């Protein structure tokens, strides 16, 4: 642990005199929790609708969430700029709870995820550096990805286990998605469980802004997901009044009817094909990559990837981009799915470059999307 603290102090800028003095007297968990508290105090950590825009950073993020028509808002988000006191790092996460305890599950995962991930990243980095065969300079990007992937897998497994043991949250028939992004310099690392989605907006060779979907929507009918579920004796089928909506069911009961194949919680089907193992990927950010939209299925059920990119890029003020996207989704629910109760709708828009390098007017000079009410 002394190795961990020395690296912790070495790579972290001083985040307050009191906190820095106390680092030597606390373990990794306490150090990370102190960083999170300090980040929130300095408005670097956001868990409600709003914006994060630090002057010295190229990052800026817009966040907005709206409750649907099904009761409590079970969506929640987090943005942490200068993640772990690293000026070149940012963490974004979006979580979509479901079931009677879904709002508690989503908030608990949001609370645990960034600190647990940061702690595991530090420990994994130390373990790798102690390996005599480890050479970060030989293939820096590959090593970074392997370290983040290992950290993500360890974090997601630990959180799901802790959630199962939680005394005050009943996750047997409730759960949450978790889609997260870490930006580290010019790399982003994406981890996804469930059917929330990350979509990148990038400039094509023809000068048009195009969407690139960075995550899979983990639905039970995906071939690799269905195969695992069937091997575990679970079942996948659609109800007669929901054609095209594939759900995961227990072997002998029409329950729980989960519309995803990966999630935190939902222990009633964890032995029948549901997993909480994330898909972890990376992307090198170039000057053509402009922003990424991270949103719950309340957006993607009614808005295409292309439409989302158009809406964000045509919003005059970056700070209002997530709110604008959510409002367009609300209007789309009213016209496209008016017979269905509107889902909770949440979005994070993470911009990669400073606002001075604006591209909207060049890409969509004549775009005429009607303003949402």
TrEMBL record:
Enzyme Commission number(s): 3.1.3.16
Coiled coil: none
Single GO MF annotation: metal ion binding
Keyword Hydrolase: yes
Cofactor(s) named in the record: Mn(2+); Mg(2+)
Keywords: Hydrolase, Magnesium, Manganese, Metal-binding, Protein phosphatase
Listed name of the protein: protein-serine/threonine phosphatase
Species: Abeliophyllum distichum
């Amino acid at each position: 642990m002394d190795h961990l603290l020395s690296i912790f102090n070495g790579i972290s800028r001083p985040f307050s005199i009191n906190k820095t003095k106390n680092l030597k007297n606390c373990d990794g968990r306490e150090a990370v929790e102190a960083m999170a508290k300090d980040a929130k105090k300095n408005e670097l950590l956001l868990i409600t609708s709003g914006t994060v825009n630090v002057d010295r950073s190229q990052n800026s993020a817009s966040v907005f969430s709206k409750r649907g028509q099904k009761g409590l808002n079970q969506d929640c988000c987090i943005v942490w700029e200068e993640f772990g006191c690293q000026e070149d790092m940012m963490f974004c996460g979006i979580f979509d709870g479901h079931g009677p305890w879904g709002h508690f599950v989503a908030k608990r995962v949001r609370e645990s995820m960034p600190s647990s991930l940061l702690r595991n990243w530090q420990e994994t980095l130390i373990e790798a550096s102690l390996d005599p065969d480890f050479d970060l300079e030989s293939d820096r990007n590959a090593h970074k990805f392997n370290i983040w992937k290992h950290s993500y897998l360890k974090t997601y497994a630990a959180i799901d286990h802790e959630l199962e043991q939680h005394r005050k949250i009943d996750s047997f028939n409730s759960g949450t998605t978790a889609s997260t992004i870490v930006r580290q310099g010019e790399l982003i690392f994406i981890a996804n469980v469930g059917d929330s989605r990350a979509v990148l907006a990038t400039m094509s060779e023809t000068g048009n802004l195009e969407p690139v979907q960075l995550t899979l929507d983990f639905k039970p009918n995906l071939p690799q997901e269905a195969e695992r579920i069937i091997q575990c004796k679970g079942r996948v089928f659609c109800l007669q009044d929901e054609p095209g909506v594939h759900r995961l069911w227990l072997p002998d009961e029409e329950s729980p009817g989960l519309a995803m194949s990966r999630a935190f919680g939902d222990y009633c089907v964890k032995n029948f094909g549901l997993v909480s193992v994330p898909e972890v990927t990376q992307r090198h950010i170039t000057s053509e990559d402009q922003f990424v939209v991270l949103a719950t299925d309340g957006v993607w059920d009614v808005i295409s990837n292309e439409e989302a990119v158009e809406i964000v890029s045509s919003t005059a003020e970056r700070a209002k981009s997530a709110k604008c996207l959510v409002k367009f989704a609300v209007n789309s629910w009213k016209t496209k799915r008016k017979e269905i109760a509107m889902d909770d709708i949440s979005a994070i828009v993470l911009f990669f470059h400073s606002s001075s390098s604006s591209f909207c007017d060049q890409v969509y000079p004549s775009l005429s999307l009607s303003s949402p009410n």
